[in-house]
Specification:
Length: 508
Amino acid sequence: MQLADARGLPLPDHGVQVWFTDPPYYDSVPYADLSDFFYCWLRRANPDDPVFCDPFDCLNALTPKLQECVWNQAYDVDGKIKDARFFEECMRQAFEEGRRVLTEEGIACVVFAHKTTEGWEALLSGIIGGRFVVTASWPVQSEMKTRTAARDAASLMGSIHLVCRARSDDAPVGDWGDVVGRLPNRVNEWMKRLQDEGLRGADLVFACIGPALELFSKYRQVETPDGEVVRLSPNPDAKSEPAKRGYLSYVWEVVGRTALAQVLGEGEAKTGNSAAGVLEEDGRLTALFLWTIQSTSIDENGRKGQKASEDGNDEPEDEEEEEVGGRSRKRGLTLIYDVARRFAQPLGIHLDQWEGRIIETEKGIVRLLPVRERTAQLFGEDGASGVAQRIEATARAGKTPAQATLFPELTSPLSVSARKGRSKARPQKAVGSMEDLEARRDATTLDRIHAAMLLQAGGASNALRVLLQSEIDRGPDFLRLANALSALYPKDSEEKRLLDAMLLAVPR
């Protein structure tokens, strides 16, 4: 064993058949800073051991910091902070060195895990820059499903092992149309295979990288018909759309569309920036959100890992907030904003326009609002019980439909005026107050599902039956989305319980 810089391996050219590396996880862990906690004591205990010294700086009494390949803005190298570009360049140099020491038939294996697409883009750009072809990707489950970080979030249950081979020096130039045309079938085939093996959510998303990258990385470079080079990451200086967006944005888009096709049907999967789907944006966003946070590891009862009480029984979690590390954390399922944005944007979903209505973003984390937090939005000051009484009264009198009673703003002149010139799938801007909501909101299919769930929670069975009958008369969208969400919500969640109970009340 020898301590050395990964960018300068003490090995001969073409001398090894396997190069296995577990590089730093982008910005997830400040390895050197954490090592100093133990290093200072080990150094005191072994003052004469030469291993306890910085091999790159004899004046540094602690662990090396400048050479560490991480995104850490606390340090700078040659006047430049250690940012994403620093990480990517270090990766490129390290992979070029790995390619140098590999035999012609040798393989490289890279272990990586990160919940943001930015981290993956930096690593993969380094791999491609090091002239490797990614031939496969396999997830290896290594994390406890009951750990705190995995609860109600899209936490990875393991690491992705990327298998690579050196790209030939005379590799051809790829045609962009051919590469992007083959991408959907490749991703779809791989997703089906991984799902059959029990993979779900974030693990499944990143495990699709290998097959997608094989199409791209086997070429020296990929060009559009007009000769513009398409890189992995976005290039704002490019002239055409493919080069501006970068290949990986198309990969995330295809994964998102494939997921929507599975849970909502092909019609929703084909929806894009210029086309309106059958379902509104909030329904598609919620379905994609829930699909992404699905847990890979399911126990024998089909439930996600959850907190257990001291006597071993499952502990109920009905509080609005829970204590985590001495701080209160709001209830609700969460997803890193970067991941939500990369999937939503190509599918024509505008996250900012649903802020405060079905999602809440804080410190880079998107929280899907629990249905109970939407009570004031949907029912106003009267609450579910007051609205239920009005529904029952108007239904007995036979005067107005249940929908007009539930959402009276739908029939107001101001609502009609506010809706002119825009699709019902997109509000004009984020809901800022209850007055804004009542004045200009169209009730979406998801709104009506949540309203039914809240009536179910309040025990308003008569009003619920009236509402459900009204939805059946309206069309199939309500039940289609409700059944899809029922299959996506975590099995131990309140939303799953309310949704399933509501569906049992649907008139047959």
